[in-house]
Design brief:
Immunoglobulin-like; 2 domains; 397 residues; mainly beta; ten-stranded antiparallel β-sheet; 24 strands; four-stranded antiparallel β-sheet; globular
Length: 397
């Protein structure tokens, strides 16, 4: 998916015209992947080149072909799903730490923008722990042997060094964590008139965004899942998390071209009053991954959870969201059919829908997203959580 923009623009199909667009495409309004809607316009998958592997990831630097041509995406965070050696960053600057002798596990050792930081403070058994990240409260949870916190590193946020603190009765534990930057890629996509009309219908986009934003931000205290998360549909990934996409109207919507590093989306999607036209091309940052699949292929729940939304939206089409507990919400866009209803409890591996091409999609595929405490993260980074978190029995907030 990507972000909405403004007036229709005819694109010169010559190489010279495409180059000029790459230098000048700087829309003033984008759907920074804040909600499920920020990812609506997704890739069309060439099913001949997308091998069905059972794993939606591709090797770093390897990109599946779309029906519009080669899709330029940067590699996703694919940390090995192996229990890491505890990492102990230095104490946070300016944080009073009393008797700070406890081990704090931080994973991955080198977190990157768009991923997730998993932290576990052994021995901190406060029933209702309190934690902060970047000097703001962040939910954290009591587990059998300590306190766990998962930190979303959304692609819309800057890289840098930040402080995590965990409160305990005898004082405060502080750790400084460095988040590395990461190039996530850019591309220009051509839409037919009917699809372009969806991308520029800012009033409906804003209305839908407000609805989805509330659902994606749910924070229930109970962890409903156990074990490692699965893939919702077997297939190769045709588009990665965080790609910046710019949309132009054309008679041929079967191709896309890569943009150079100077093209940038700007702004944040879905301000409550965003219902007027904008200058420039519609553009969004992709807030999930696209998985190659045939129309009506079954989609299964990657983990147990509660269905919190089933709806039809202008960009994401037939949409399903599942609350897995403790701030983790999964999203499924462009579905042909949903097989569950709002309020249903689903088990891991249960069929929840079928792949489609509804909404702003130029062909059948599954857009799969993960939201953590209301912020989108790379689903691959979430799936590759450390084994010590998978094995923990989270009980209360």
């Amino acid at each position: 998916m990507n972000s909405p923009g403004s007036t229709p623009t005819n694109l010169d199909r010559s190489t010279r015209g495409a180059t000029a667009l790459a230098d000048s495409a700087r829309p003033r309004w984008t759907l920074a992947a804040l909600l499920a809607l920020t990812v609506a316009a997704c890739e069309v998958v060439d099913r001949k080149s997308a091998a069905t592997t059972g794993d939606s990831t591709t090797a770093p630097g390897v990109v599946a072909d779309s029906a519009r041509g080669t899709v330029a995406t940067a590699d996703s965070a694919t940390s090995p799903a192996v229990a890491p050696t505890p990492t102990l960053p230095g104490d946070s600057a300016g944080t009073a730490v009393t008797d700070d002798t406890l081990a704090v596990r931080i994973y991955p050792p080198e977190p990157r923008r768009g991923g997730v930081v998993f932290a576990f403070a052994e021995g901190v058994k406060t029933p209702t722990p309190r934690c902060t990240w970047k000097n703001a409260p962040i939910p954290c949870y009591h587990v059998n042997e300590g306190t766990a916190v998962t930190i979303p590193l959304s692609a819309d946020e800057e890289a840098g060094t930040f402080t995590l603190t965990i409160e305990r009765p005898s004082g405060r534990i502080g750790r400084r964590i460095t988040v590395a930057d990461r190039e996530l890629g850019r591309e220009l996509i051509f839409l037919t008139d009917s699809l372009y009309a969806r991308a520029t219908n800012t009033r409906e986009i804003a209305r839908d965004a407000r609805a989805v934003r509330g659902v994606a931000s749910v924070e229930s205290g109970e962890r409903r899942w156990s074990g490692r998360w699965r893939e919702p549909v077997p297939g190769a990934r045709s588009a990665g998390y965080g790609v910046e996409r710019y949309y132009y109207r054309a008679t041929d919507s079967t191709r896309s071209i890569a943009l150079d590093s100077q093209a940038r989306t700007r702004g944040t999607f879905a301000a409550d009053t965003t219902d007027t036209a904008f200058p420039g091309a519609p553009s969004w940052r992709h807030a999930g991954i696209d998985i190659a699949a045939t129309r009506r292929a079954p989609v299964t729940a990657p983990a147990a959870g509660l269905v919190v939304d089933v709806g039809d939206y202008i960009l994401s089409g037939r949409t399903l969201l599942i609350d897995h507990g403790q701030g983790a919400v999964s999203a499924y866009f462009h579905l042909d059919t949903t097989l569950v209803s709002k309020g249903d409890l689903v088990r891991v591996g249960q069929r929840i829908g079928r792949v489609g091409a509804t909404g702003l999609a130029t062909g059948p595929h599954l857009h799969y997203g993960v939201y953590l405490h209301g912020k989108d993260v790379d689903p691959v980074a979430w799936r590759d959580m450390p084994q010590w978190l998978v094995a923990k029995d989270s009980t209360s907030r």
